[in-house]
């Protein structure tokens, strides 16, 4: 097959990027593939709208059937976003035997099982590299390059907006609200930033990564989620004093008691490779039983980085069509594993308390921890008049015990407030 037809569903930021990359690298892609990839139709709401890019006007259509039912379109690229309409388009394309490339993490997190079943029924390919970490090829790494490993842990910074905010708070000492406004002004954060700052975007991504890494379907509701809205410059300063930086992490780890899968702010040791990931960059740290520790770093969003991943998938789908080998990298969720509840997770904790500065306060706090089998690794006290700020770091402890201790602390008359609690992710690498 000398020419393979592409239908683009959507022509927003990512869609335009995909078209640009396909055009500017057309000769290179043709030589690498041994066939020409040609965009035949582009689905948009308004075909007459000026989009600031030179595209033949007859490529645009407002009718999805012009792509989904056209036998000359062998690969459907879904970059329209959202869930329900995208789901209908993708399911129909797969049902008709067309290969699909999507960048839609929301769709995969909500309907991944249905989509993979539709692909399996017709032997079509479903590729989704751009759904998790933009230009970082982490899906291909887990499915192919590390396929011989038993994956022990996947942990990453998979949301550029929150990483930018935490970087600026750390380096400039600015408050969350101030940096968020700056991120919105620069286009790094949406007008409604809830999905990013509440951790939901990262939760969808870690659900996808965990499903692949541990061969067991992880749903969005399986992921424990906390955002970064309660992180303050004081927390970041104390973390630095203790030898840590604060990052929003997506964490998936397989243990004998089940899979841990969670998103939350975490204190990361300054020696950990993830600690140096700044601004809008993403990074995914993977530990395998054979390969050991690896990390994959790059831009997690943006027009061209995301388009890079989409076009890589288009080429993979086209190659499979050309050599009649489709359906070789389908769903890998062939096991059903237990997800560990957050109360059963064991880790260390950072706590910041506001307490009355008088004799006996520390003894009462130590007793509350001791009553619940929580031991302390570090204590910092800062006094300002009659109120002292007390920062504590625990040794590893089960979360249920930590929560019981915190409830006891809140009942103490000398504790004015438990101002913040942040988990600590230790690392013992080189």
TrEMBL record:
Superkingdom in the source lineage: Bacteria
Keyword hit for Protein biosynthesis: no
Cofactor(s) recorded in Swiss-Prot or TrEMBL: a metal cation
Domain called ACT: residue spans: 350-423
Residues reported in the UniProt entry to bind NADPH: 105
Catalytic activity from the UniProt record: L-homoserine + NADP(+) = L-aspartate 4-semialdehyde + NADPH + H(+)
Stored SUPFAM superfamilies: ACT-like, Glyceraldehyde-3-phosphate dehydrogenase-like, C-terminal domain, NAD(P)-binding Rossmann-fold domains
Functional pathway: Amino-acid biosynthesis; L-methionine biosynthesis via de novo pathway; L-homoserine from L-aspartate: step 3/3; Amino-acid biosynthesis; L-threonine biosynthesis; L-threonine from L-aspartate: step 3/5
Binding positions for L-homoserine per the UniProt entry: 190
Active-site residues, record numbering mapped to chain: 205
Pfam families, per the entry: ACT, Homoserine_dh, NAD_binding_3
Entry GO MF terms: homoserine dehydrogenase activity; metal ion binding; NADP binding
Family classification: Belongs to the homoserine dehydrogenase family.
Protein name: Homoserine dehydrogenase
Source organism of the structure: Thermodesulfitimonas autotrophica
Lineage, opening ranks: Bacteria, Bacillati, Bacillota, Clostridia, Thermoanaerobacterales
């Amino acid at each position: 097959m000398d020419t393979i037809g592409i239908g683009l569903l959507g022509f927003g930021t990512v869609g335009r990027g995909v078209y640009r990359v396909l055009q500017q690298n057309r000769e290179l892609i043709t030589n690498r593939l041994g066939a020409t990839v040609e965009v035949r139709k582009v689905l948009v709401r308004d075909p007459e709208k000026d989009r600031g890019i030179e595209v033949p006007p007859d490529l645009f259509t407002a009718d999805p059937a012009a792509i989904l039912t056209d036998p000359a379109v062998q690969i459907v690229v879904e970059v329209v976003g959202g869930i329900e309409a995208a789901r209908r388009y993708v399911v129909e394309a797969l049902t008709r035997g067309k290969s699909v490339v999507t960048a839609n993490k929301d769709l995969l997190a909500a309907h991944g099982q249905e989509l993979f079943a539709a692909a399996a029924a017709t032997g079509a390919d479903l590729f989704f590299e751009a759904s998790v970490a933009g230009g970082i090829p982490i899906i291909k790494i887990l499915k192919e390059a590390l396929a011989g490993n038993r994956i022990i842990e996947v942990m990453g910074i998979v949301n550029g907006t929150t990483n930018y905010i935490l970087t600026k708070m750390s380096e400039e000492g600015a408050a969350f609200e101030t940096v968020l406004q700056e991120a919105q002004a620069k286009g790094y954060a949406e007008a409604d930033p809830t999905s990013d700052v509440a951790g939901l975007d990262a939760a969808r991504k870690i659900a996808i990564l965990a499903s692949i890494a541990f061969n067991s379907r992880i749903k969005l509701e399986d992921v424990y989620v906390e955002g970064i809205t309660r992180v303050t410059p004081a927390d970041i300063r104390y973390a630095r004093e203790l030898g840590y930086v604060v990052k929003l992490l997506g964490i998936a780890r397989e243990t004998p008691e089940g899979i841990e899968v969670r998103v939350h702010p975490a204190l990361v040791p300054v020696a950990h490779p993830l600690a140096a990931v700044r601004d809008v960059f993403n990074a995914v740290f993977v530990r395998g039983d054979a390969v050991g520790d690896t990390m994959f770093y790059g831009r997690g969003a943006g027009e061209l980085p995301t388009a890079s991943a989409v076009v890589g998938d288009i080429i993979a789908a086209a190659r499979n069509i050309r050599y009649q080998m489709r359906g070789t990298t389908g769903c890998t969720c062939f096991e059903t594993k237990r997800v560990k509840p957050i109360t059963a997770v064991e880790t260390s904790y950072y706590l910041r308390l506001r307490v009355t500065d008088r004799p006996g306060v520390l003894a009462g706090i130590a007793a509350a921890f001791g009553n619940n089998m929580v031991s302390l690794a570090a204590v910092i006290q800062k006094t300002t008049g009659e109120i002292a700020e007390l920062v504590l770091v625990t040794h590893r402890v089960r979360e249920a015990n930590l929560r019981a201790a915190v409830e006891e602390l809140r009942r103490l008359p000398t504790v004015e407030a438990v101002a913040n609690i942040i988990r600590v992710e230790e690392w013992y690498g080189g």
